# Entry
Amino acid sequence: MNIKTKRYLAIFVTCAATLALYGTAAWRVEQLRQQPRDFASCNFERCIPHNATLNALR
# Structure
């Protein structure tokens, strides 16, 4: 392999790793977004937690 091929391979690997990280993060955000929100009653101004752990943080 010459230096040009190595450079292109390095760029490809870097782009693939970046896209994989971005895709994984987007997938996890989507999974979290689809979970039911039983732990708090939220409106636009504030969230009211329903368990003692979150109440203790207030």
